[in-house]
Amino acid sequence: MKRFALACALLTGAAFAQTPSTQPLTVLNVATGSKGGTYATMYKNLGDVCTSASWLRERQTSGSVESVDLLLSNQVSLAFVQLDVLKARDQIDGDARTKGIRTLLALHQEELHLIAKKPTKNFFGRLSGVTSYSQLAGKKLGAWGGSVVTANVLRAKAGVSFEVVSFPTREAALSALSAGTVDAVLAAVGQPADWVKALDAQQYSLLPLDIDPAKVKDFYQKAKLIYPQFGASVDTYSVQSLLVTRDFKTPEKRAQLLKYQACAKNKLTRLQEDEGMHPKWNDVTFKSAGWPDYK
Predict the structure, then answer these.
(1) CB neighbours of 217 closer than 8 A, spacing ≥ 6?
(2) In the prediction, which pLDDT does 15 show?
(3) How far apart are CA 19 and CA 80, in angstroms?
(4) Could you tell me if 245 and 257 are in contact, meaning their C-beta atoms sit under 8 angstroms apart?
(5) Domains annotated on the chain, with CATH
(6) Taking a C-beta distance cutoff of 8 angstroms, is the pair 242, 107 a contact?
(7) How far apart are CA 280 and CA 263, in angstroms?
(8) What is the DSSP string of 198-244?
(9) For the segment 42-89, what is each residue's pLDDT rounded down to a tens digit?
(10) Using an 8 Å Cβ cutoff, are 53 and 259 in contact?
(11) How distant, in Å, are the alpha carbons of 98, 150, 239, 241, 256 from that of 111?
């Protein structure tokens, strides 16, 4: 009789252990972009202030294009992406699956960094190289990740024809620029970017994007790049960044995502004021930004 009672107690305990309220949370993968990038840093910052982030696992990618692909193929549940990549996938590529993507958090603006080697003078004193976006006509522009989409959108909208050369990584693109196989590289990244600060200002320049705002207003807004080592501020454009998910309906997953969303919004002041947080948090308001929200 005692054995029967003990067995019943164990079975009852096991049943209680499997109730939804006590089941361990599912670990969700988050596509963050390249190592050391703004997205990766902000993901870590969120994990520092939100204990609900303990069930999130980082997955580094080459950028927004790969991150969107992983989200749509159900390889990750969250992804940091550029808004222009989503718009291009929807409006230009006609990928109906993007209709199921939702904004969990609207983040900061990502500035467009156009980088080239400093012009050099030939024997006759003539300069070779580019000093602005408009001088890219007929030349080669390197990019990687979501910036490949950005380069193609600019080429289509701004009226300057150049060849977009896609690279798998930032390092590969910068190596090509150093070797002279491309004339410039384009990167959409929140400033200040550590890797941009690490560039030799004696060898490289940040170039202005001298583009008519009316031509790109549906995708980008005017901005300035400020890197003291490169001298005066540089006119550029920026694109909205987002932390997106799919329109999940499962109650458990919805609860996890909404808890994470609420925590981030409630801890915004800490993200903006605690030492060591990325300075881009100071540009974040979490207001809706051109793509449907997750609710």
Answers:
(1) none
(2) 39
(3) 33
(4) yes
(5) 28-109+241-283 (3.40.190.10), 110-239 (3.40.190.10)
(6) yes
(7) 18
(8) TS-TTTEEEEP----HHHHTTT-EEEEE--GGG-S-EEEEEEEEEEE
(9) 999 999 999 766 788 999 998 899 999 999 999 999 999 999 999 999
(10) no
(11) 24, 11, 7, 10, 31
CA distance 249 to 16: 25
Q: What is the pTM of this model?
A: 0.83
**Cβ–Cβ < 8 Å for 229, 191:** no
Q: What percent of the chain is predicted at pLDDT more than 90?
A: 76
pLDDT tens string 211-254: 999 999 989 999 999 999 999 899 999 999 999 999 999 999 99
Query: Taking a C-beta distance cutoff of 8 angstroms, is the pair 270, 44 a contact?
Result: no
CB of 190 closer than 8 Å to CB of 111: yes
**Contact status, residue 183 vs residue 242, Cβ threshold 8 Å:** no
**Which amino acid makes up residue 89?**
R
User: Rounded CA gap, 43 and 80, in Å?
Assistant: 9
- Please spell the DSSP secondary structure of 131-156, one letter per residue: SSGGGGTTSEEEEETHHHHHHHHHHH
First to last CA, the chain: 53
Closest by CA to 186, choosing from 139, 245, 255, 252, is 139
Rg (CA), the chain: 23
Torsion of the alpha carbons at 66, 67, 72 and 73, rounded to the nearest 10: 60
Q: Are strands 234-246 and 221-225 parallel, antiparallel or unpaired?
A: antiparallel
Taken in order 226, 290, 265, 31, the sign of the CA dihedral is negative
Return phi, psi of residue 179, to 5°. -80, -10
